Amino acid sequence: MHKKKATLFLEDGTSFEGVSFGSTGESIAEIVFNTGMTGYQEILTDPSYYGQFVVMTYPLIGNYGINHVDFESVKPRVFGFIVKEVADFPSHWRKNESLTSYLLQHGILGIAGIDTRMITKKIREKGTMKALLTTNSLTSEEALKRLESPLSNDQVKQVSIKQPFTIPGRGQRVVLVDYGYKQGILRELLARQCEVTIVPYTTTVEQINTLNPDGVLLSNGPGDPKEVIEAIPMIQGLMQERIPLFGICLGHQLFALANGANTEKMKFGHRGGNHPVKELATNRIYMTSQNHGFTVTTKSIATCPLKVTHIAVNDGTIEGLAHTDVPAFSVQYHPEASPGPNDSRYLFDQFIQLMRKEKEEKQYA
């Protein structure tokens, strides 16, 4: 079977020629890598990858196909998928289609047959950069010219829902602010019998108050947290009213910014299902799933009403925060991780306990 040629051009002038799988055409995005051995379907549909090409460091991808169960959102969010080898004939009892047919159906470009190890090493050495993926004939000069244009910074706007909706439950009433939420977060809340109302990222504290929530969860999402300016006054308003808060990934960064901390772009970020995190209160190590390119700066925490609760073992960056006075906490990693690891799912129980405790204190105040 003849396969169409595809070319990946990096901002530093490097190019890689391989074979196309999925859709055809041309796309420009930030290029990042993920170290997961499995979970490519969840990666493809994670809204936090909106506007990015994802390089998989594990060499064989697509061997168990695509099913209709393990999606994190309704469609793929990545702009392109880069692998060493793609499985043309996947085998799994839940398989509904192949990775290639899925990308083709949704207009997503894929490239295989290139040195993903070299690309990963380049990203680690030079940092994340812009890249162009195309099945068209382009010279290096033409590609570099196109890469001069800036990338968009409205990723959250593109992935957030437009209208709120509620999923009934008998437990705590939770408002989930959608900055690009994963189905895994919703699944964990529903498993704990929560009533969940999902609201757009532009929702104000006044609008949230009309829902009378027991707690608010700030979701994960793509892009630079400093671009999501709507979130800061809303989070500050919730804290003033002592409404319990739980932030995950982008939600963690926004929680930090709302308390006066600072964030900065990392050289190449953390993306994969194998990142060790240390809980400072117990010195216990948890294996975590991560996907972020920004971090809260340690220096900025010194002047904030926040304390660091978790740090990354590999590089010492902040992985968890808690407010010193308000019932609010956050983590940089993903406790809802699917397919895993599941070490940190207890954080959802901690959020439930926090909501119950605050509710009881208000009743007897």
From TrEMBL:
The record's listing under Pfam families reads:
CPSase_sm_chain, GATase
Q: Where does L-glutamine bind?
A: S48, G221, G223, L250, Q253, N291, G293, F294
From its record, what is one biological process in GO terms? glutamine metabolic process
Q: Which residues form the Carbamoyl-phosphate synthase small subunit N-terminal domain?
A: 4-134
Read off the InterPro entries from this record. Answer: Anth_synth/Amidotransfase, CarbamoylP_synth_ssu, CarbamoylP_synth_ssu_N, CarbP_synth_ssu_N_sf, Class_I_gatase-like, CPSase_GATase1, GATASE
What chemistry does it catalyse, as a reaction equation? L-glutamine + H2O = L-glutamate + NH4(+); hydrogencarbonate + L-glutamine + 2 ATP + H2O = carbamoyl phosphate + L-glutamate + 2 ADP + phosphate + 2 H(+)
Kindly state which keywords UniProt assigns to this record, in alphabetical order. Amino-acid biosynthesis, Arginine biosynthesis, ATP-binding, Glutamine amidotransferase, Ligase, Nucleotide-binding, Pyrimidine biosynthesis
User: Where, by residue number, is the active site?
Assistant: C249, H334, E336
EC number assigned by the record: 6.3.5.5
Its UniProt pathway annotation is: Pyrimidine metabolism; UMP biosynthesis via de novo pathway; (S)-dihydroorotate from bicarbonate: step 1/3; Amino-acid biosynthesis; L-arginine biosynthesis; carbamoyl phosphate from bicarbonate: step 1/1
Q: What does this protein do?
A: Small subunit of the glutamine-dependent carbamoyl phosphate synthetase (CPSase). CPSase catalyzes the formation of carbamoyl phosphate from the ammonia moiety of glutamine, carbonate, and phosphate donated by ATP, constituting the first step of 2 biosynthetic pathways, one leading to arginine and/or urea and the other to pyrimidine nucleotides. The small subunit (glutamine amidotransferase) binds and cleaves glutamine to supply the large subunit with the substrate ammonia.
Tell me how this protein assembles.
Composed of two chains; the small (or glutamine) chain promotes the hydrolysis of glutamine to ammonia, which is used by the large (or ammonia) chain to synthesize carbamoyl phosphate. Tetramer of heterodimers (alpha,beta)4.
Similarity field: Belongs to the CarA family.
NCBIfam families (alphabetical):
CPSaseIIsmall (TIGR01368), PRK12838.1 (NF009475)
Q: What is this protein called?
A: Carbamoyl phosphate synthase small chain
Please give the organism.
Answer: Tepidibacillus decaturensis
